[in-house]
Task: structure prediction
Amino acid sequence: MMDVQTQKIEALIGEMTLEEKIGQLQQCGPSLVGAFEVSFEELLDMMFDGRISQEEFGRLMSTAEKDFHEDDLRAGKIGSYNGVGDALTANRLQKIAVEESRLGIPLLFGYDVIHGFRTVTPIPLAESCAWEPELWQKTARMSAEEATAAGVHMTFAPMVDVAKDARWGRVSEGAGEDTLLNGDYGAAKVRGFQGPDLSQADAMAACLKHFAAYGAGEAGKDYNRVDMSAQRLREEYLPAYKACVDAGARAVMPAFNDLNGVPCTVNEWLLRDVLRDEWGFEGITVSDANAIAECVNHGVTTNRQAAAKEALQAGIDMDMTSNVYAENLAGLIEAGELAVDLLDQAVYRILKLKVELGLFENPYRTDEEKEKRTLVRPENRALAREAATKSMVLLKNDAVLPLNPQQKIAVFGALANDPGQMTGAWAIGAQENDCVSLVQAMDAQEISYAYHPGIVDGIVAKDEINQLAETADVVILAIGEQKEESGEAASKADISLPTIQLELAETLLRTGKPVVAVLFNGRPLAIPTVAEQVPAILEAWHPGIEAGNAILDILYGAVNPSAKLTTTFPFATGQCPLYYDHISTGRPGGKSKFTSKYLDTPLEPVYPFGYGLSYTTFSYSNLQVRTTDDAVRLTVTVTNSGAREGEEIVQCYVQDIVAKRARPVKQLKAYQKVLLQPGESITVEFAVPFEKLGYYDQKMDYTFEAGEFAFFVGGNSRDNLSETIHLSFI
Ligand code: GLC
Result:
């Protein structure tokens, strides 16, 4: 017996023409008219290859007239838009759809709300270093309130692509190299975006991405092939996406890459067997931008028409901006090459999402007044600042930090004085004048300082630097990456700092003043020299609009840093991919020549996964491990052995020492953030369910192997207490 909602949708589908059905599958991106008659993507290319400047790009994007193909909209040929981010435009287009098209089906507005909308929070890789699902959910909720006030109904987030190769620019957009953390991060974001009731005006459908294993692109090159065993795919990559589906995500975006030769966009095994049949996903799938058309480039379809056929058969409901469905589906169905039932199923899922969002009852969920009073509210800024302070990782501190207000400060490096760079990649709703740089925050807080960019016209201004540094007690050095150096299409073959930045660091070190390096970057960097020579290093990432205030909160000790790395910092690019949950190999690296290592580079990273310092210290003792009927239970005593209150992220790792397939030397299985007063000790408990200790054997059976299991507990993935027990799983 169909429920009422289903009956209504089925009845509506019964009234729709073939063209109107196909229109619901069409997601349109505004094309730009005016000086540059090009698409948004082409405009991006023009910026990235230098044909137009970033400023020109920004001016064009904000001023260029946009063509929303309104005649097509009136004719019922458009069901959704990507990239409409203001209430006025959204309501204007919605009015055309609802009042001027034959059936009045409301539009669905999608947008990339990746780490904040107007109140931009730290890039996801940064925020993941908080190891705090409650925070991740709160910032997602805040961004949903802002984005829905601007007319957005669905975000193309969370991105939970496990990323173990720092060369990949999109490592900035997810929760790092670990499976568990990406899953917890993604599930928290889904809960935050969607809220308790999707029909609420401030609820935003979550579209998890990129399904699947986009972060495993060969050589860290974006869009590159992904080829891995079925075992590894299921053990290390799929769980994070499944966690988002289990959290109720209403949409899934397949990845650009192929998976073992079959592009995800036309990968029926992935989109139907796994996503729908195994996981029971009932939401919509939306292709990545132009991805259906790109199946021709992949060499798996002869032309766009074949791509349209394969994509619908594989299970792509909505075509993001390739027009391949609009051009070809009617002909394929009329020629009997595609069953209209496949089309109706896709239309049903899309209409069902619009019903769940309440768009039929309330197509105008916002207005300009609501948008104005919601964006960048003081409480949103405060949350952005909290998230930033919880994301910044103290990597080194040889008794330099926290600073005291009496110290005279000299600040060097353009990134200290460039508010627009603070938002990082994928902050398309950001406005530079919302952002606070380090220098601007020092001005606002009336901290006296001297500032110099350090590098002028490509040269380190040694004389001026020495003069300014002479007057200072402490020198702050701002180095790292521009926001364009990470994110999409931003892979690097060299993740070390530019030579000129190293020269600037050296010049400052030579002044003999204590140097504090503040890193602004969207990926792990290979910084062995800085790590060795600079006495204090704060990893600030691209921290969002409250960057400057958050950095000062940490540098002056108003906030005690607690973040821990969710991504390994290699010694050299050549070590990539470098990650903590590696397997041992038959010749684990060591002293002997004939072991798995490099002749010219240490085996170990500069900073390991899970690493991060505090202004206090923590000690671990009394690790106890026992089993109950369904889990391994651990207790450990954690003590704040320092002189000030602090939070510690206690981490629990496991190694299945012997199995039929080699298992990682460590895998994160649980973590807890605890607040301790000076001298305080607490007992932290972990439960690791037996089902988390299995693996896929060669026949792809999920197996539990009786034997020795090592359990590690500590404040990072390297320095741990450990206990080994025998598990029989009986
Ligand atoms: C991009 C990205 C995807 C994003 C989409 C829509 O190419 O791959 O993550 O959501 O286009 O803007």
Q: What stands out?
A: The first strand starts at residue 26 and ends at 28. The two ends are 43 Å apart (CA to CA).
